[in-house]
């Protein structure tokens, strides 16, 4: 009788463990990390394209050095940040990374305004190719951020719902991940002046 009771108890314990969400939470955390890798890859692509874009523009707009310097400095600031998966668990570091990327986006926007002043540059095929690459990269960054935020939402939901929340509290101790948020002033449309 004891043996049957032990077998029933063992079967119930095993079936309970399959519903505890341990594997689900692990898989969702891995999805967050993979989505973050996509975001990093998109940012790296942009950082790699910027020197080429700046060099093409330099040839046409020598007296716009302050704008070109701002782009170069913003890129250097982004490049100097050590990006790691641990950053995803640190809201302060994550915010600094997001701010640096925002500064780079702003500098690139100013660079595009400079380009509008030089019709020869706009017609240059090398510049057009680089501009298309940069535009495509910005779109990739946006898609990667959106996918990352979705993965974060799925993960955060999985660690906060029952029975996963209990498993997380007792075994895993996983922290909520921070999603990308809009930059300060993003609600106001940028004004382009010529």
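-> sequence recovered:
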């Amino acid at each position: 009788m004891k043996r049957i009771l032990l077998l029933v108890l063992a079967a119930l314990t095993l079936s309970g463990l399959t519903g505890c969400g341990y594997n689900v939470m692990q898989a969702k955390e891995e999805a967050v990390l993979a989505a973050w890798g996509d975001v990093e890859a998109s940012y790296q692509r942009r950082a790699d394209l910027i020197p080429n874009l700046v060099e093409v523009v330099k040839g046409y707009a020598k007296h716009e050095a302050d704008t070109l310097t701002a782009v170069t400095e913003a890129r250097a600031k982004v490049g100097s940040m050590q990006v790691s998966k641990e950053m995803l668990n640190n809201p302060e570091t994550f915010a600094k990374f997001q701010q640096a990327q925002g500064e780079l986006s702003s500098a690139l926007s100013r660079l595009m305004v400079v380009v509008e002043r030089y019709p020869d540059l706009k017609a240059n095929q090398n510049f057009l190719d680089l501009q298309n690459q940069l535009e495509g990269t910005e779109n990739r960054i946006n898609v990667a951020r959106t996918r990352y935020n979705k993965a974060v939402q799925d993960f955060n939901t999985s660690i906060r719902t029952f029975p996963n929340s209990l498993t997380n509290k007792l075994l895993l101790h996983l922290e909520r991940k921070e999603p990308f948020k809009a930059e300060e002033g993003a609600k106001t449309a940028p004004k382009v002046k010529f």
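The CA atoms of residues 77 and 100 lie 7 Å apart.
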